[in-house]
Amino acid sequence: MSTPRVLAFPSGAEAAAALAEHLIRRLDQAIAQHGRASLALAGGSTPGALYQVLAARYGRWSGWSKLSLLLGDERCVPENHAESTQALIAGKLETAIPGAKLLRAIPGELRSEVADAAQAAALAAAYSAAVGAVLEGRGIDVVLLGMGEDGHTASWFPGPAAPEGPTLYVPVVAPRTSPIPHRITLTKSALVAADVVIGFVTGAKKQARLAQALSGDRSIPFGDLIAARPVEIWADRAASENTMSTNRSDIAVVGLGVMGASLALNMADKGFRVSLYNRSRDKTDELIAGYAHKDRLTGTYDLKGLVESLAPPRKILMMLKAGAPVDDMIGQLSALLSPGDVLIDGGNEFFPNTERRAAEAQKRGIQYVGMGVSGGEEGARHGPSMMPGGAKEAWAAVSPILTKIAAQVSDGPCVTYIGAGGSGHYVKMVHNGIEYGDMQLISEIYDLLKNVGGLDNAALSKTFSEWNKTELESFLIEITSRVFKQKDAETGKDLVDVILDRASMKGTGSWTVEQGAQLGAPIPTIASAVDARVLSSLRAARIEGASRLRGPRPMLIAPELVSALVADARAALYAAKVVSYAQGMSMLRQASDKYGWGLDLVEIARIWKGGCIIRARLLGDIQAALKEPRAREGNLLFSSAFSAALADREAAWRRTLVRAIEAGLAMPALSTSLAYYDTLRRERVPANLIQAQRDLFGAHTYERLDREGSFHTEWGT
User: Core-most of 175, 179, 277, 643, by most CB within 10 Å?
Assistant: First the structure.
């Protein structure tokens, strides 16, 4: 028996919307390959609802003129009869969509009741010949079927043998309860030969029959078809509830490092059954042994066993080191997966790799998701922020799990569908860039308060703890306060003072800077934070420079000036943090425009409010500000709230930087944030001189203020 792909949606309307998009994508693929496509359609109210969605959303699809619409089955009635499949398709699609044409090809034959089986046979033979001429020896590209409450599909009813014959269509006789006895329907062999067969099933009354069909019961036609060939089943929850085997897992996690193990346990906590796979068996066994609800975890020790343990469509979350290990795992899994299965990469991957993998997976019918995950071990275990991008259909399959395990804030779970391709990993990359900037800004303020203000670690902890009750409230401010209280177990000293001043990084910050430059998106706060980490790694050079390079040394200010310094530092930190977020949001907007992702910046700000490393009270204000067009389409700083907030703080911001410069303290992120702000405040900047220089030494031309065009000057000596 083939394994059916079952996609369940909260409602029939949501299932119809997702299926309509899927149908168009499938048909586009067929048209790209063959120049034309064929689609056989069923009758009934459930498919009829789908046809309405197709007409409403895809009426202008360019493929209609290259598509042959075929009858999956037909009652032998006049063509305008209420029970006619032809009448349904004509009413929902032909009359609504220019270019949509149903293959009738049997003029007059359906205009009167067929009195006997012989006439039905003639009708089936004639329609078979017409369809055969269209197909030119190929199978039908896509067949859409419904399922009746008795388990029948098309006009293949329980009881009689499967409809077969030498032609594509055969005559059948409906059960006695039907007022229309004579029909024609696609043969079982024609259905088996079709490229894709889709069953669209909705309603609680069909739940029992669908479960029966999925269990392998061949006594009902839908079950017999599932046993004979792969069938995609799109259903609402009313029809699909309790149809999957209870001993199959909902999802698998491959890679049980800190993040993978934490996410697996988070899923199990929420009641999901999770299959586990890791290269070393010990990690799998240890994770299960230490977990209370062992029945929710299934250890697997080879990839074939992992795939077989999953309920279709199979959903596999890979938590692996970025790069070659992910490509290797995809290669191994692809040979075992079926069309419609979902592969999720939850690591920090460079987005072009995700774009490539998504395109390769689509060719095999596998739905690929590149998903950023933020929150560290604690977030992954109890509720991260997640940024999934890729196939929209895959989001429909995994969202019931992801929305449950995500961090929860007042306006919903901290996860949302980001967009196509590598958009999810791109958004996570920029998130990490903002994180770099935020951490650097905090470290610069720490440097100032310690070396100019004279605050010891206890005072620093108290200050940051107090700030965490203000507009600066955030995860990073909270943990900074905790850092200053931690003692070193070996020496008894404050741990922060024995940690080497050399900051490491894993690459996402560098990727952000590189992509910002390629995009033409200025992100100086993030770039300076990356540079600061690189400079921190030059410890030997800094030790030598401390004795060779001249400049001021930090001196403590008078005690009575400390409170003013702390107040100014708080204002400066807030202003610079806003600028850092503004740079990240502008970069996301530009990337969305370039790659056609349609990123929803308001939603992105919302899902960052909980679970992730950069979660902060500030994000609620950013979410509100981005609803203003001038902030969303221009710059976050242009919002009424933030332009006023920075105006109130810019004097303190400048005083803070003057204090640091006079003390010889480097403030790369704080100073470039102010430079970004000041540059945006100026109508005219000195770039006119740069353009003049470029034209003089390289004839690169320049533009003028007083007229359009490009100009070159023969510069004098």
Answer: 277
Is 435 an annotated catalytic residue? yes
Question: 44-89: per-residue pLDDT in tens?
Answer: 888 888 999 999 999 999 999 999 999 999 888 777 777 888 888 8
Tokens found for residue 112: 């009167």
Tell me which residue of 376, 366, 375, 363 sits closest to 345, measured CA to CA: 366
Please give the angle made by the CA atoms of 531, 537 and 543, to the nearest 5 degrees. 115
Q: Check 428, 450, 577, 609 and give the catalytic one.
A: 428
pLDDT at residue 373 greater than cutoff 50: yes
* End-to-end C-alpha distance for the chain, whole angstroms: 86
Kindly write down the DSSP assignment for every residue of 422-435, as one continuous string: THHHHHHHHHHHHH
Q: Is 544 left (phi over 0), alpha (psi -120 to 50) or beta?
A: alpha
CB–CB of 348/372 below 8 Å? yes
State pTM to two decimals: 0.69
| Of 338, 347, 343, the residue nearest 357 (C-alpha) | 343
Query: Tokens 């999901």 correspond to what residue?
Result: 272
Torsion of CA 686, 690, 693, 698, to 10 degrees: -160
Helices (H), 452-494: 457-467, 475-483
**Mean per-residue pLDDT, 293-302:** 87
- Of the residues 188, 435, 450, 577, only one is catalytic, namely 435
Q: Which helix (H) or strand (E) holds 398?
A: helix 392-405
* Known catalytic membership, residue 304: no
Check pLDDT > 50 for residue 109.
no
